[in-house]
Amino acid sequence: MKFGIYPGGRAGTVCSHPPDVAAIRHLVDDIAGGRPFVVREYVHFFGDATPPDVITSLGAEHELAHLTMPDGWYVEGNRELDLVLSYLPRAADLAGWLAFLDTVIDRYGHLTRYLQVTLEPNFPIPLIDGSAPGVLEALTLGVPHARTALDRRGLQHVRIGFSVAEPPEWLGGDDQFWSSLSSVPYQDFAAHVDYVGLGLYPDAFSPVAPRGNPGDTASLTAHALHHLRGRSLPRAHIPPTTPLHIVENGTPSGSPRTEQAQRDSLSDMLGVILTEQESLNITHYELFSLRDADSSSTEPIGTLGIVTDTYRPKPALAVYRDIVRSAGQPPATPHP
Q1: Domain of 151?
Q2: Sorted alphabetically, which InterPro entries does this protein's record hold (predicted)?
């Protein structure tokens, strides 16, 4: 399994201060230990109707000029860039979106190893692609368009995929999304999908059962993995041979939680993922995130980092570093 991380210090609209390039270099090198390592980044398509303040609130105004780190860093030291193209227009704009894909590929294609077309189109909440008009067409037409665009530029090595959120049962489920994909012929969409990503935050936004009980973090992680592979993907004609990437996985440390609880939760989730990697064809794991967006925030998304917003390591960093350096061996289960 390949491992990776999102290195920036932003989660949605939450960001306490700009990233520290030197600190990121040191921490990523320390975690990776010279092994192949995936770095996740995001660019956004907004169309023409999105107010400038929305773009600024997401820190997206300069994404085509630069990412978190200098360009060359993403292809040095066994690193690979996983670049997410998010679709967030206020009105459906397929032509603009396809042109944006071309622009991003022209700008970043030579740096990219994995290209994710849309971000969680099954998840209809504000500032996530599932809430954007025309997102299904942006996905199903965007994936083959990106493949053609990459091939024309001699970038056949770039793998193309999309991501979904873990089963959003608390929002009423995502049956309509998968039902829509089921009507798209295999050769028009699924044949062009090199991987499917999963965003996985089982204990971040709602209470979970105590450790060792049904409904705890580990059992919810297992449910999400098996639900996607066994139920959802077959409906979209995506076979078991198409790899799964855990493209986002995180757990907060902010009150009422603790840094030790974050460590334990991350250990539990990774234990399940590593145990299931062969049976479910999980080939990549990317942590969200390196740094807290805002360590003083009361929102869960503020404290998903394994270091604070001043880059002080939390206990979870050692857990993740040890797993990466041990080539994906499941973590030892700590005492309750």
Answers
A1: 2-325
A2: GH (IPR017853)
